[in-house]
Write the structure tokens for this entry.
Amino acid sequence: MSFYEDHIFPPVMEWATKGFRRQIAALIAQAQGRVLEIGAGIGANLGYYSPAVEEIVGIEPVEAMLEKARRMADSASHGIPVRLTAGDARDLPFADAEFDTVVACLVFCTIPQPEKAAQEAFRVLKPGGKLVFFEHVASPHRTTRAVQNRLNPLWRKVACGCEINRDTRRLFEQAGFVYDSIDDFIHPKVPALVAPIITGIATRP
Ligand SMILES: C[S@@+](CC[C@H](N)C(=O)[O-])C[C@H]1O[C@@H](n2cnc3c(N)ncnc32)[C@H](O)[C@@H]1O
């Protein structure tokens, strides 16, 4: 990883995603049992888990982010055991059906070959387990979508692999998930290119 990816991008990302956190907190409060958070980043979500969670396992490929998450894990998670480990969501180091909940928060925009990560999330969930997600996606509006498509190559470079034009709703369906609830909206407090959001809960049948 470069100096930019390790030290410049993480605080920028923290600042840029501030507008999302209130809704993310409400969503993550619905996680329960053994939880896997993929792409846990600097651990920004660790404080949002409820006492219905037995253990939080977080995986994150960027060592500098992982270190930051580790430093605040115990104080942030109000007593819920946290295990943070280096890992790639496309090849999860866990057995089938290990988790009750998988949390994916602003991460399917960045994972290369995101279909593999969706299949892995499906695999490690117990039947009946829940995928809890909050993702920025391709715009439903033609003009914004065209701008997203045009700017995506540049955006990907500046934002460490993040893509602004993914159809993550379809990706989850193709992996076999069935939606319990999905809210599809334009976030009013963030730049237009990352404002189209999908959030909700899907089940591994
Ligand atoms: C926009 S950040 C979001 C971090 C965190 N989920 C949050 O809500 O603050 C995207 C995260 O996805 C991680 N990521 C990128 N590729 C990944 C992969 N293949 N597997 C798991 N995480 C990945 C990045 O390192 C980064 O931490």
Q: What stands out?
A: The chain is about 35% helix and 25% strand. The chain has a mean pLDDT of 94. The longest strand covers residues 125-136.
